[in-house]
Amino acid sequence: MLGDDIMNMQAMLCVDIMNIQAMLDVYIMSMQTMLDVDNMSMQTMVGVNIMSMLTMLGVDIMSMLAVLDVHIMSMQTMLDVDNMTMQTMLGVDNMSMLTMLGVDIMSMLKLQRKWLARWLVMLMIGIGTALVATIIEICIEYITEYKFLALKKLFDFCRTYSCLAVPLLAWVAFNALVVAAGSALVTYVAPQAAGSGIPQIKCYLNGVKIPGLLSIKTLAAKMFGVILSVGGGLACGKEGPMIHSGSIVAAGISQGRSKLCNKDFKVFEYFRSDNERRDFVSGGAAAGVSAAFGAPIGGVLFTLEEGASFWNQSLTWRIVFASMLATFAVNLLLSAVHGHPSDLSNPGLISFGRFPDISYQAIELPIFLLMGVVGGFSGAFFNAINYRLTVFRHKYICPKRWLMVLEAMLVAAISALLGFVMIFFVHDCRDNLDDEHYETRIQVFCPDGQYNAMGDIFFKSPEASLVSMLHEPADAFQATTLITLVIPYFLLACWTYGLSVSSGVFIPSLLIGAVWGRLIGLGFLQIVPSMGNNIGKYALIGAACQLGGTVRMTISLTVILVECTGDIKFGLPIMLCLMLAKWVGDFFNKGLYDMHIYMMGIPILPWDAPEMSYTVFASEIMNSPSTCLHQVETAKRIVEVLREHPHQGYPVIEPCEGSQEIMGDKAYGRCKGLILNSQLGVLLKHKVFDQVSPKPVLDISHFRDVHTSYTMINSSGKRKNDIQLTDEEMKYTIDLTPYMNPAPYQVTQHASLPRIFRLFRGLGLRHLLVVNEKHEVAGMITRKDLAKYRETQQGGSVRMRELSIQEY
C-alpha cells in the first residue's frame, strides 16, 4: 500500500486529503506518524510542495489554517522547520511571509526607529550635561582665581602699610555684589532655579508637575546663578545644581521643541508623553551626578534611591549609558581645557583624589561607628536649624522679593567678614611650599617663608578646601584652627541653604564633616600614637557621615564616595557609618530634601502608605460632589466649567434614573469616562462642534502638543487669544465620547487607603474616580487627597495625621 501513489489513491477513492483525514479522524501529523515519514518525504511522495498541493485541493493557506485552528508560527513549530525552509515549502517571498505571519513591516520599522531614538537622546543628554558642567567649572575657576589673586595682592600690600581694612572692604563688596547679581537672576527671572533643585526633581519624578521647573530659562538662571553663588564666596557647592541642570537638558532634548522660543523642531514627537519625558529626566539627573562627581554608577543609584518612582529594566541600561558618557565627556573637555587632552585626569567637577597608602584596622571600626552617630546628631541639628530659618524666611522675607536679594547679599557679606576675622585672629603658620596653591596663599602676620593656614582654607574654592582636608598631613592644621572653622562654617551653611540663589549642600556638608573628622582623628592619634599619622581616612568618614546625616542617603552616597576615591577598601565602613547616621538622624527629624518638600506643600507620595491607614476608606478621602460633564455638552457649559472649576480632569457621565443634580452644575450619573482639562481646551480651540460641517478631524498630535491646561478662560471664552467663540457657537454642542478615556481607573467607596495609594504610586495616577454600587460617580481622589495623610516618626513615637489643604 505504501508503494502506491497517494494522488492516484485519492483519485480512485474520489476523496480529497481533508476527507481522508476526516474519515481517518487524524491530522497531518498523525498521518505522517502512520506512514512513518518526515515532512519533506511526505511532500516528495505527493510530488508537490505545500502551496501547489493546496492549490490542487482548492484550499487557501489562511483558510486552511483557520480550519485547522493553527497559526503559521504554530504550524512551523509542528513541522520543526526554520523560517527559510518554511518559506521555501510555502513558495512565498519575504513580504508575503511577513503578511502571513501577521507582521506589519511599517509598525516594525517604527518600533525600531523609536528604540534607536531613545539611545540617541540618551547620548545627547550625556554630552549636553557634560557641556553644562564644563561651562560652570571653567567660569568658577576663572572667577575664584582672579578674585583670590587680587585679594592676596591687597593683603600683601596692606600688611606693609597697615591698611587691612581695604582688603576686608574689597572682599565684602565683591562677594555682596556678585551674589546680589546671582540672587536677582534667580528671584526675578526663574524662581525655580533657587537651591539645588533636587527636592523639586524628586517631586517631578514622583509624578508631580511643577510649572517652569524644566524650562530653558530655568537652566540659564541655574548655570549663571551657581557660578555667581560659588564665585561670591557663599558656603555652597555646584554639584547639587548639576542634578537639576542635567534634568533640564534631558527634558529639553527629548521633547524636540522650545516653549521659550516658541519653536518646534518636529523631532522626537513620539516622546512627548509624561512617562517618556519622566524616563529621560531620570537619565538627566543621573548624568548630572555623574558629571559632578565622576561617579556614573553612583548617579544611577542616586536616581533610583532619591528620585525615580517609576522604573523599568530597559531604562536602567540607557541611564548607565548616559551617565558613563557624561563622565567621559566631562573628563575629555576639562582635560583639554587644562592643556592635557590625552591625560583624562578630570572625571568630574570634583575628585577626592587617590588614597594609595590608606588602610584601616579592626580597632578603628568602633571609632568609625561613633563618627556615624556624631554625623547623625550633626545632620539632625543642621536640619533643625535650617527648618526654623526657612519657616522664618517664608513668613517674613519671601513675600517681598527685594528682601530675598538683600538677605543673599547679607549672607555673602557676613561670609567674607567671618573669613577675614578668623584669618586675622588665628595664627596658624605653615611653611610655604611651591605647589598649585602657592600663588593664592597669604602671609598676613606669619614670618617670611610661611603662610596662614586659615587663609589657605578660605582662599580656595570649597572643593579645593575639601581635598586639602582629605589629603594634607596630620600636622597641616592645628586643632584650634579646625575648631574655630567648623562652628561658624556650619552655621553659614545652615543659613545659606534656602536662600534665593542657586546652591548645593553637598560640598559644604562634606567639608564640615571632613573638618570634625580630622578633629576626631587627631584626638584618636594622640591616644593611640601607634596607629600612624594618616588622618585622611577620618576626614573621609566624617565627610560621609555629615552628608549622610543631613540628606539621609545611604546606597548611592556609598557608591559615589567609593567612585570618587577610587578605592573599594573603605566601602564597608562608609556604608555602616551612613546607615548609622541615617538611623540616628531619622530619630529626630526628616532628611533635608524631604523637609523642604514638606514645607513647599508639594503632594509627593512616599514609597508606602501610612501603616495605620487601613481603616481609612475612599468615601472619607474623596472630593464630593464632583464637577461632571455629560457625554454631549454645550460649549457654554464647558467654558463655564473650565473657568469656575479649573481642575485637571472631569468625569463624563450618563444621566440615569435616580441621579441627583447638586449645586446646579455638579451632577451625578453613571460613569462613562474621564476627560482632561487640556483635551477640552483643544476641542474648543478647534471648534469640534456637532453643528459644524465638515467636522474637524483631530488626531493624537493635536492633544500631544498642548503645553498647558486651559484654566484661564475669561468670561468671553478667550484665553490668550487661543480660543475665540461667538455667542452662536457657545450654544453648539460637543460630543465628548470619541475623545474621553472610556476606561479610567476607578475604585468603590469601600476601597482602603493603602490600596488606593498603591494605584497612585505604581501607575503614576493623577485622578481616581470613586463609584458606588450602581456605578455612579460618587467623587474624585487626587494626589493632594492622599498626600495629606502623613506618618510621622519622631522621638521613637509613630503617629498618622491628616493635614489640611489650603488653596493659595
From TrEMBL:
CBS domain location: 740-798
InterPro entries from the UniProt entry: CBS_dom, CBS_dom_sf, Cl-channel/antiporter, Cl-channel_core, ClC
Keyword Repeat annotated: yes
Subcellular location: Membrane
Residues forming coiled coils: none
Bilayer-crossing regions: 48-68, 119-144, 164-190, 280-303, 315-337, 358-382, 402-426, 479-499, 505-528
Membrane topology per record: Multi-pass membrane protein
Superkingdom of origin organism: Eukaryota
Molecular function GO labels: chloride channel activity
Entries under Pfam families matching the protein: CBS, Voltage_CLC
CDD domains for the chain: CBS_pair_voltage-gated_CLC_euk_bac (cd04591)
Gene Ontology cellular component list: lysosomal membrane
Major localisation: membrane
SUPFAM superfamilies: CBS-domain pair, Clc chloride channel
UniProt cross-references to Gene3D superfamilies, sorted A to Z: CBS-domain, Clc chloride channel
Keywords from the named record: CBS domain, Chloride, Ion transport, Membrane, Repeat, Transmembrane, Transmembrane helix, Transport
Family membership: Belongs to the chloride channel (TC 2.A.49) family.
Record-linked PANTHER family: CHLORIDE CHANNEL PROTEIN CLC FAMILY MEMBER, H(+)_CL(-) EXCHANGE TRANSPORTER 7
Protein name: Chloride channel protein
Organism: Owenia fusiformis
